Amino acid sequence: MATNNLYRHFDETGQLLYVGVSIGAVSRLEQHHLTAHWSSQIRKVTIEPCAGRADALQKEGMAIITENPLYNKNRTGLPKCKKSNYQLFLEKSAAFRAEVKHMYADGMKQTDIAKKLRVSRARINQILRAAKARDSIAPLPAAPPPRRIEQSSDILAEAAKQKSVPRYPPDAPDA
User: Fold this and answer.
1) How confident is the model at residue 89 (pLDDT cuts 50, 70, 90)?
2) pTM given for the model
């Protein structure tokens, strides 16, 4: 059975040139060499196997949006047909929600996340509110204030009287 692959082409400096999906990534590379004006710049190719076509397309869309390849014609990360349906699919995906949460946890503002991922700020806010409701990105609870022990010797003596602290040596008489 053929597997769908996500492939990335890089130049000599590590700049991402192109992201694509193909069942035969090696034969697709040969096609790029024949047709793409930028193929002479390719110095490194990575191939990532995916669970299926939908998974590969989802990963491709996220890669185009977040990694900003130089030569992808479709720079939005959306397929050329039915953009709104694909955008909805992408926004509902776990990978998209995880990316939003990751960016927010790194201190990025909601408006900046929305611009980078090309969605509305309201959608980002909705994703983050749902995540907070599930406690997946809830802030850490505040640490309790430190206990102040002003007279530690008096506290230890009181605990010893209540026999909650063992005496050393064990055969020492009660005070």
Assistant:
1) low
2) 0.47
